[in-house]
Each structure stands twice: as structure tokens, then as C-alpha cells.
Specification:
Length: about 650
């Protein structure tokens, strides 16, 4: 039993914030429910006199102590594979002439075969394009590559320590400690750095700031060992030189290390391309590179046309182009910017994320740079920010206040409703009669200070919320909850109407072969739609290409593969269900909905896409559909039942 598996259980429960069944946890971990129970027992054993995970009929749920236990979870026991890996990596980085396999194995009190297996894990971490290789001569093995590549490797290993934890300074300290990087001064350094950047008029990307601080700590550690970067020739631009001076000063103060010009300018470049937000107050007139701006404009306009979203505006294009300009610099340096919101953005806003994938795909091809999921998530944040205003207008509900007149009582109540709920509810009418025509009220909600008749024709009870003449906090909570129910019913009602049209008879596959993998399952489901003349083989190939850009596993149960271009003869959905989890990107899904969209049905894209993901985002609903959907008819019946609540 590994500590990492225990921490993964904690991470899933903390993110969910609600009850999760043992079966769901087992699917996510690729183990049995019995193993999950043993992990829970082990986690709770780490909290004497308390528990981090509570058990109940509905499964498991994280308690208030869970976050603290997870933060402490990175303190691995000496001698574990994870600890050995860190030791091997550190030894390879510190020794210019490499390490002797047998001597290192003896020092770590393991067999040579065990150490060889650890070296295999190091090779897999290096991967392609890392700029590092392991070179062997007899029993001696060394790491060959530039100093910059070695530092990037240290950062990558440290980031692996943070996968299941929060992306904060505590997680950063644990990650640094795991690689023997000085971590005591990380918090103070970051505080001073952000303050100095603010004094210069810069806006700061807090998500990336902690990451760059880790790079500073790595640089300080390497320089202290006599492994400085070469000085940069030529005069740097003023902004970079100014930031280089700040980095040098703060590193000396907090880490006690004097950085040379090469290190200071390198770290300043990281700040400019990762931490300083484009368009800061310091340089309000800064303009993106004309070529990058043109490429971004083309990608944005095509995405706007394909998805019918209102994003093709000059200010949006310019700001995104500045971001992409920095992205290109990061790609050249292989210095990717992590985004802790990637998973949340993908599951909560799948349509926005898909627009970002479309933009990123075109940028990647045209500019010749790879764009990873975390970078796509930053593009999605730009897109979401632009669409937020129109999205808010779409979700605004109308309300009628029923408050029999008595002096200015109804006016005071309306003022209170506007003040407390005005961002989500628009009051379109006020009834001051004691006997209003209830059936004539057509707003989304009715906020009433009096009891309506028992039976009101045309006015469902879920739309009526009883409130006090003087609005209380409890009233606000009840209205907010009722508004949420109305919005959900509206969204899912649209979904039910659309899905009945789009599920293709005969395009349902129960018992999908999980071993076929992403591409194999896409081809199996695509063949069902090809046979019906809905799509051609080119659409299937395009769907596979889209999948390679970014995984379409938008929830922990569902993947929605689709092409970026809407070239199907008609919109149709092919469903595949597997009782065994299918490895899909970083997720393990049970349901695959291959969606073929046609140009004529573009307005339905957002409805079908986002609401389908919403339904499967609820673990209990997803498990019910997987368990009971034995054929298309029963699957649709269960889907309708889930939608209707």
C-alpha cells in the first residue's frame, strides 16, 4: 500500500466535497473497493484521536482534518520507491562524472536490480525533448545535458510531488524539500517579489508566481554548487534588466546566494513570460508582435464563427495575443506555465474549454509550438472572461414580488431584493393586491409575502418562494436555492428535448472493449455513425486529432470525443458503455459519447455539450446510467429519469 494512493483518495474526496462511493474511488484509482477501504483506514490512522475521512451509507467524505493530512502526506518514509527516485535523481544531478550503480545501491541499502528499476523510472521521466539523456559505461551512468535542461528536470520532478495537493506555498515547500532544494525562504521571497512587481506597476499572475519562485530556489541551489548559467551577451531590454536586478537582490537577501548575470537575466525572462500579466500598468502601450497578433485574430475569428460565441473583438484579440506571445517564449524554453484550475475549467465549462482547444490547435499548427492542457486552460480563462457578461445575462432569472400594499412596504422589499439578489434575479413586476391574478404571473420566480391559493393553474409550486416582508438572510438563501433549481431544470429540459433527436438508433455499444484505448473506441463508435451515413472516415480521423490536442474526459466518468469542425451530415451521438474503466488521458471513464455535429445544428452544440457533461458530472447519476443502460432505449429512459430528478 503506497502513501501516494492514500493521498489520491484524500485529494479526490477534498475536491468533491461530498460523499463518494467506494466503487467510484476504486474506478479512479484502478483498484478494488476493498483496497479503497484499506486506504481509508490507513489515512485515518495518521490522525490520532480523529479521522480525516468519515464513512457512511453513501460512501466516504473528507472531514475538516483532511486538508492538513494531505499537506503532511508528502513526507514519505525513507526507503520507499518515491524517496529512492528522488535520491537517484539528486545523485545524478550532483555528480558530473555520474554514479556507480553498485556503489549507489549499497549506499541506499537496496539491490542493484532495484536500483536498475529506479533508473528505468528516471528514463521515463526524462521523456522526449527533455534535452537530457542517461549515458552508460559499464556500471557507471551519468546524466548528460545542458545546465538549463537539468534545472527543468528538477522542476518537473518537484512538480510531480504536487499533483495531488493544493498548488500553494505549502505544497511548493514540500516539493522543494523532496528534492533537497532550500525551501525555508520561499514564502518570504514570493511576498517581497510580488510587492516589488506591484511597485513597478505590474499585474501578477499568482498561479505562476509560486512556480517561478521554485525556479529561483533551484537556481540558488545550483549556483551554490558552482553550476551557474553562462552570462548573456549583449544588453538586455530595460524591463528585463530591471527585473534581473530585483531577482538578484531578493535571492541574495533570502537565499544567501549571489546570482551571476546569466542566472539573473534568465529568471527575469521567466518573470516576464510567466508571472507578469501582459498589458500591465507599467507598459500600457505595449503591442504584440504583428505576426502573432494576425495569427491569433484568425484563430479567434474562426472559433467565434464555429461555436457562435462573441469573442472576436479587438481588445480581446490584443490581450490574448500578448499572452500567446509569452506562450511562444515559454514553448521555446520548454518552460510551461502550470495552471491549478485546468481540471476545474474542463469539467465546469466544457464548451469554453473546447473553444480554447480550437484556438490552441490553430495556434499550435501555425506558430509551430506545442500547447499543453495547462496552457489551453489559460486561453480558456481569457475566453471565459470575455463571455462572462453575456453568460450572466443568459442565466438571469425574472421575478415578481407579491407584497400587499401598506405604505412603502413593497418598495422597501423590492429594494432589499435588488440589493441582495440583483446579480442573479431581475424583478420585473410587483403585485400589491392581496388577491392578484396568480395564473397571469409569467416570471421565472414568484417571491411572495402571502400564501398563494393551494391550487394555482399554470404556476408550478417550485417557482413560488415564500419570503418575509423584511427580507432575511434565510429568505435570500431560499430564493438562491430556488433560482438554482429553476436554472438547472431549464438547462436539463433543453437537453432532454435535444437528446431525443440526436441519439442515433443502432449507434449504441454496450460492453466496449476497454483495452482498445482512446483511438480504438473512437473508431469503433465512429464506424456505427459511418455505417448510417452520418459522417465519413475523415470525421473519425479529425476526432482522433482533436483528442490528441486535449483529452475530452470532461468528468470522471464521461468522455465526449468530437471533431473541431462541424462537418457531419446531421448531428448524431453514438454511445459506448464499458463496465471496466477505459483509460482516457489522465482519467478512467465508463461512458464515451462520440458526438458528430453538423453545420446546421451549431446552436445546439452548447446545449448538448455542456448539459450532457453536467449530468455525468454527478457520480450517482453516472453510475445509475452505466448500471441500467443495457440498450439505447433503457439508457434514454434512465437519462430522462435523471434529468427529471
Amino acid at each position: 500500500m503506497t502513501r501516494r494512493r492514500q493521498d489520491r483518495v484524500l485529494g479526490i474526496l477534498i475536491r468533491r466535497g461530498d460523499w463518494v462511493t467506494a466503487a467510484t474511488l476504486a474506478d479512479q484509482l484502478g483498484v478494488t473497493p476493498r483496497s479503497v477501504r484499506s486506504y481509508v483506514t490507513a489515512v485515518n490512522a495518521r490522525v490520532p484521536g480523529d479521522e480525516a475521512i468519515e464513512s457512511g451509507p453513501a460512501g466516504y467524505r473528507a472531514t475538516g482534518a483532511a486538508a492538513a493530512v494531505l499537506r503532511a502526506g508528502a513526507e514519505v518514509d525513507p526507503g520507499t520507491p518515491r524517496e529512492r527516485l528522488h535520491g537517484v535523481v539528486r545523485a545524478l544531478l550532483d555528480a558530473d562524472d555520474g554514479i556507480d550503480v553498485h556503489e549507489t545501491a549499497d549506499r541506499m541499502h537496496v539491490s542493484s536490480a532495484t536500483l536498475e528499476a529506479d533508473l528505468g523510472r528516471v528514463r521515463s521521466l526524462l521523456g522526449d525533448g527533455a534535452g537530457l539523456t542517461l549515458v552508460r559505461a559499464g556500471s557507471r551512468i551519468r546524466l548528460v545535458g545542458s545546465e538549463l535542461a537539468q534545472r527543468r528536470f528538477v522542476s518537473r520532478v518537484a512538480h510531480d510531488e504536487m499533483d495531488e495537493g493544493a498548488f500553494d506555498l505549502e505544497a511548493l515547500r514540500r516539493a522543494a524539500d523532496a528534492m533537497a532544494i532550500p525551501s525555508e525562504a520561499l514564502g518570504a521571497f514570493k511576498t517581497d517579489l510580488v510587492a516589488r512587481l506591484g511597485e513597478l506597476g505590474y499585474f501578477v499572475n499568482e498561479f505562476a508566481a509560486a512556480d517561478v519562485v521554485l525556479h529561483v530556489a533551484i537556481a540558488a541551489d545550483r549556483v551554490a554548487q558552482g553550476r551557474a548559467l553562462d552570462a548573456v551577451h549583449g544588453d538586455p531590454e530595460p524591463a528585463r534588466a530591471r527585473l534581473a536586478d530585483i531577482v538578484g537582490e531578493l535571492t541574495s537577501r533570502h537565499f544567501g546566494v549571489e546570482l551571476g548575470q546569466g542566472d539573473r537575466l534568465h529568471l527575469a525572462a521567466l518573470l516576464l513570460t510567466r508571472v507578469v500579466v501582459p498589458g500591465s500598468r507599467e507598459e500600457p502601450a505595449v503591442a504584440p508582435d504583428p505576426r502573432i497578433a494576425a495569427v491569433v485574430r484568425t484563430a479567434v475569428e474562426r472559433a467565434a464563427e464555429s461555436y457562435l460565441v462573441d469573442i472576436a473583438h479587438d481588445d480581446f484579440v490584443e490581450r490574448l495575443a500578448l499572452h500567446v506571445q509569452n506562450l511562444v517564449h515559454r514553448a521555446r524554453e520548454q518552460a510551461w506555465s502550470r495552471n491549478p484550475l485546468t481540471r476545474t475549467l474542463k469539467s465546469a465549462y466544457p464548451m469554453i474549454f473546447d473553444v480554447a482547444v480550437s484556438i490552441a490547435g490553430e495556434l499550435s499548427v501555425t506558430l509551430g509550438v506545442p500547447i499543453h492542457d495547462d496552457e489551453i486552460a489559460y486561453i480558456a480563462m481569457h475566453v471565459g472572461g470575455r463571455l462572462e457578461r453575456s453568460r450572466r445575462a443568459e442565466t438571469m432569472l425574472t421575478a415578481t414580488i407579491v407584497c400587499p400594499g401598506y405604505y412603502e412596504l413593497h418598495e422597501l422589499l423590492r429594494s432589499s431584493v435588488d440589493r441582495s439578489l440583483g446579480r442573479s434575479i431581475e424583478v420585473t413586476g410587483v403585485e400589491t393586491r392581496v388577491d392578484p391574478d396568480w395564473s397571469a404571473i409569467d416570471s421565472d420566480l414568484v417571491l411572495t409575502t402571502i400564501e398563494p391559493p393551494v391550487h394555482v393553474t399554470g404556476l408550478p409550486s417550485e417557482r413560488i418562494v415564500r419570503i418575509q416582508p423584511f427580507l432575511t438572510d434565510a429568505d435570500v438563501e431560499r430564493v438562491t436555492a430556488a433560482a438554482g433549481r429553476v436554472r438547472r431544470a431549464r438547462r436539463l429540459g433543453r437537453l432532454r428535448a435535444e437528446l431525443a433527436r440526436y441519439f442515433a438508433p443502432g449507434a449504441f455499444l454496450r460492453g466496449v472493449d476497454a483495452s482498445r484505448g482512446e483511438e480504438g473506441v473512437i473508431r469503433d463508435l465512429g464506424a456505427l455513425l459511418v455505417a448510417q451515413g452520418v459522417i465519413g472516415d475523415d470525421y473519425v480521423d479529425s476526432t482522433i486529432e482533436r483528442e490528441r490536442l486535449s483529452s475530452t474526459a470532461f468528468t470522471e466518468t464521461l468522455a465526449v470525443p468530437h471533431a473541431l469542425k462541424m462537418t457531419a451530415a446531421r448531428t448524431a451521438i453514438a454511445i459506448g458503455i464499458s463496465e471496466q474503466p477505459i483509460t482516457w488521458g489522465d482519467a478512467r471513464v465508463h461512458v464515451v459519447a462520440l458526438v458528430a455535429f453538423s453545420e446546421s445544428d451549431r446552436p445546439a452544440f452548447q446545449t448538448v455539450f455542456e448539459q450532457l457533461v453536467e449530468v455525468f458530472g454527478e457520480p450517482e447519476s453516472a453510475q445509475r446510467l452505466v448500471r441500467r443502460g443495457v440498450d439505447l432505449s433503457s439508457f434514454l429512459d434512465e437519462l430522462a429519469a435523471v434529468i427529471d430528478g
